[in-house]
Every structure is written in structure tokens, then in C-alpha cells.
Write a structure and sequence with these properties.
- The chain has 300 residues and is of the alpha/beta class.
- It folds into two domains: 196 residues, Spore Coat Polysaccharide Biosynthesis Protein SpsA, Chain A, CATH 3.90.550; 82 residues, no CATH class.
- It has twelve helices and eleven strands.
- Helix 7 runs antiparallel to helix 8 and helix 8 runs antiparallel to helix 9.
- The longest helix is centred in the C-terminal third of the chain and has 17 residues.
- The radius of gyration is 19 Å and the shape is globular.
Length: 300
């Protein structure tokens, strides 16, 4: 059996880190170890992890200063001894079969990257809030360019081809790394088996954060011209919807409507129209300069 390493980057995660570690330890796949990278936490994270490692296969690494999650994940991946590297955020969890089912996909499809669809949300006490039943495309490229795959707790890599996270894309680093993997010719496979549990809580990174917007614009500038033409409308729609969420109404409507004209499936999808109505009339955000940074790149 190939060995698996689970990398958990954490900063001030004392409330949830034990739940993430236990989720990894409870996997049905046995040949597994855990690498925790503490990004200079100031709470009880270190104490909790050191206590848990006394009777579990856990390597604990600590940064001298806070360096953000991208570098921490890369440090963890470098220290990993497994043939496959699975990433789990400190505040999320997995169902017990997640690793085993992902490894089946690695083996069956000779994949370099396996991405799981993130369907289920849990609360602060790990109770299920809801599970999305949304029907998604079976086309992995359509999911990729729509930013529907790449979420960190649902993404695993063959270590030999791991491309590393880039800090300049922080807040969209999870989408950027799979876009880059695809551009490198790596084989990306998708599994939709509802084995990843994403926690909802007040301290989670918000998609309304201005840095999320700025990172999305960097993704746009870096990858738009290389997106295959059949999928460029999906990519534009994702970017346009982010413009709308952050108050850039003119650019957002232009990109989204242009994308809908080019993709009949987007135009026919009532959920996308509801999204436009929800985000497209947030005039209060237009009045907030922090949410209104306009990309300097030309929209083609």
C-alpha cells in the first residue's frame, strides 16, 4: 500500500485542531501519517498537538514567525514522507473513507491530482448543517474553470508532481494551484462522494474580504488567455460574479452577460440568473472603495 501524508497548516486553531487531527486518524486507510505546521500560533495549538502526538503518527513543525498558509502547506509537503499528500484545513474534517476513496481514483485514473466536490457544511460542534444536492457537470475541465474544485480539504496530490502553493494568490491559492496543475499538463481527476466536511464559523476566510477580490483579479490576469476557448465563458462568469460581489457592477455585468451569450448552458441555468440578481444590485458595495478595486488588465 502506498503511504499517505496528511498536511494540516494551522494558525491559532486551538478550538478545532483536535477535530481535524482526529478526522485524519479515523481514516479507514491505515498507512498514513500527519504533518502539522503551526504558523506561529499564540494560543494553545502547540500544547494540544504535542499532547496528541504522544500516541499518534504526528510530526509537529512550527514556524518562527507567521508566514501564512501557503508557505506552511509547502513546508508540510516538503516534510511529508508519503507518496501522496492530502491537505486538510485545521477547521475542517473528513468522513472516514475519504483517503481510501481518493486513492482508488489516483490508482484507477493514474491521476496527479484528485479533487473532491465540497458538498457538506458542519457547524462549530461538527454537526451537519446541510448537504448540497446541486447537479454538476461531469466534465472536470468545466468544474475547474468554474472554480468548483480545488478547495484545500478536498484536494490531494501525488507528491512527485506537487506544484506548491503560491503566496501571491493567497485567498484564491486553492483555485490557482489546480489551474496551474492543469496548465502543466498534470492529470486532474474529480470525485463526487461527499466525504469532505467544511466547517462554517465566524473566523473563516470570507469571500467578501477585499484580498479575496484582489487575488481573484490576479488569477484572471495570469490565466485568462490560456483558458481553452470552450471553457473561457465559464472562467469569465466566475470572475464576473466576483466583480459583482465586490461592487464593480459595470465590469461584473459585462463579463457575466457576455459569458451567458457564449454558453447556452449558462444562459439556461436559472440558478445563475438568481446569482446575478443577488449580487448584481448590491449598490452599497459600489460605495465602498475597498471592495471596488478595478483590474488594470483589459477584458477581451
Amino acid at each position: 500500500m502506498p503511504k499517505v501524508s496528511v498536511v494540516i497548516a494551522v494558525y491559532n486553531g486551538a478550538r478545532y485542531i483536535h477535530r481535524a487531527i482526529n478526522a485524519a486518524l479515523k481514516q479507514t486507510y491505515a498507512d498514513l501519517d500527519i504533518v502539522v505546521v503551526d504558523d506561529a500560533s499564540t494560543d494553545d495549538t502547540e500544547k494540544i498537538v504535542r499532547k496528541m502526538r504522544s500516541d499518534a503518527p504526528i510530526t509537529y513543525l512550527r514556524n518562527d514567525k507567521n508566514q501564512e498558509r501557503c508557505l506552511s502547506r509547502n513546508i508540510g509537503a516538503s516534510a511529508a514522507t508519503g507518496e501522496y499528500v492530502f491537505f486538510l484545513d485545521y477547521d475542517d474534517e473528513w468522513r472516514p473513507t475519504y483517503v481510501a476513496e481518493s486513492l482508488d481514483v489516483f490508482d484507477r485514473e493514474s491521476a496527479d491530482v484528485v479533487c473532491s466536490i465540497l458538498r457538506s457544511k458542519i457547524d462549530t460542534e461538527s454537526k451537519l448543517i446541510y448537504t448540497s444536492k446541486k447537479k454538476l457537470s461531469a466534465d472536470a475541465s468545466a468544474l475547474l474553470f468554474s472554480a468548483l474544485i480545488g478547495g484545500t480539504p478536498g484536494t490531494a496530490f501525488r507528491k512527485s508532481t506537487f506544484p506548491e502553493y503560491r503566496n501571491e494568490f493567497l485567498f484564491r491559492e486553492d483555485w490557482e494551484i489546480v489551474l496551474r496543475a492543469a496548465s502543466m499538463g498534470l492529470k486532474i481527476s474529480v470525485v463526487d462522494n461527499d466525504t469532505v466536511l467544511v466547517r462554517e464559523h465566524h473566523h473563516r476566510t470570507s469571500t467578501t474580504e477585499p484580498r479575496y477580490y484582489a487575488a481573484t483579479m490576479r488569477v484572471y490576469e495570469s490565466y485568462r488567455d490560456s483558458v481553452p476557448l470552450p471553457y473561457r465563458a465559464l472562467f469569465d462568469f466566475e470572475i464576473g460574479s466576483t466583480y459583482l460581489r465586490h461592487g464593480n457592477l459595470l465590469r461584473g455585468w459585462w463579463l457575466c452577460l457576455s459569458a451567458m451569450r457564449r454558453r447556452a448552458d449558462l444562459f439556461a441555468d436559472g440558478r445563475q440568473w438568481l446569482l446575478l440578481l443577488k449580487r448584481g444590485f448590491r449598490l452599497d458595495r459600489w460605495l465602498n472603495p475597498a471592495l471596488r478595486h478595478v483590474s488594470r488588465s483589459k477584458v477581451n
